[in-house]
Design brief:
alpha+beta, 246 residues, single chain, 3-stranded antiparallel β-sheet
Length: 246
């Protein structure tokens, strides 16, 4: 499949993001209210896609947000600006059902901004399962989950197609997603089923990584880094030594 260029002007909170526990809603990622830093996440190739696929915990998803921003437009205004976030849970008053009942006098926000951690950790895990496939044909156990993912985030109205002449006078199509998650879905569809993605064989790691090509790793690499290969081999040698001594 031809890899189409993806162009998206996105932004991240320049002051970063924090994890906030919201009653009845679980953990949320909330921006700290800094000026928006604008950029195109897809200038980094498949790096954002791999980073999201490996965001399988609260902390890892928060780290993803620190680098790339929110996944959807929920945390942003119609102009793409970062709206004033919840700076502290003490500024808000919740009832037992998790509804916001009031604000402290100096708070300027009238509703909850940010994104659900549980929601997108689950999506990230699904991305990882799809990218780890070695065949373009999905197993039945995965196809249903992917259909649900596309129903929730794969609206065609959020993805545009245009054409461009680059500075080298090359003519090519360009995909313009309306959000980061839409752009990541485009990359997922273009790269799923490729043998270039591997899962690190170090037991405590399990990170999905790119192998071969321009990744700097051999196509048959089993570990995401030299350090993890050395650690794995060292552990195996230690196990073998213990067996010999018994």
């Amino acid at each position: 499949m031809t890899i189409l260029k993806i162009e998206l002007e996105w932004c991240r909170d320049s002051k970063g993001y924090e994890l906030v526990e919201v009653p009845k809603r679980g953990m949320w990622i909330i921006g700290k209210g800094g000026p928006p830093h604008r950029y195109n996440p897809f200038e980094m190739g498949d790096v954002p896609l791999l980073a999201f696929a490996n965001a399988h915990s609260e902390e890892k998803l928060r780290d993803f947000a620190l680098r790339y921003g929110y996944l959807t437009k929920r945390g942003y205004s119609a102009q793409g600006e970062v709206r004033p976030p919840i700076k502290s849970v003490h500024r808000y008053h919740w009832d037992r059902e998790g509804k916001i009942t009031g604000l402290d006098r100096d708070a300027s926000v009238e509703y909850l901004e940010g994104e659900s951690v549980n929601e997108f950790v689950a999506v990230a895990k699904l991305f990882k399962r799809v990218l780890a496939l070695t065949s373009e044909r999905l197993p039945r156990s995965l196809s249903g989950d992917l259909e649900t993912l596309l129903f929730n985030y794969g609206s065609l109205s959020d993805v545009g197609l245009s054409f461009n002449l680059d500075p080298m006078r090359r003519f090519h199509p360009v995909i313009s997603p309306g959000s980061l998650i839409s752009g990541l879905l485009v990359q997922l569809a273009q790269l799923a089923g490729g043998s270039s993605f591997k899962t690190c064989q170090l037991a405590r790691c399990g990170t999905l990584f790119a192998a071969g090509g321009r990744s700097g790793l051999r196509a048959d690499a089993k570990f995401c880094s030299t350090a993890h290969r050395v650690e794995h081999n060292s552990r195996n040698r230690a196990k073998a030594a213990r067996k010999r001594s018994t």
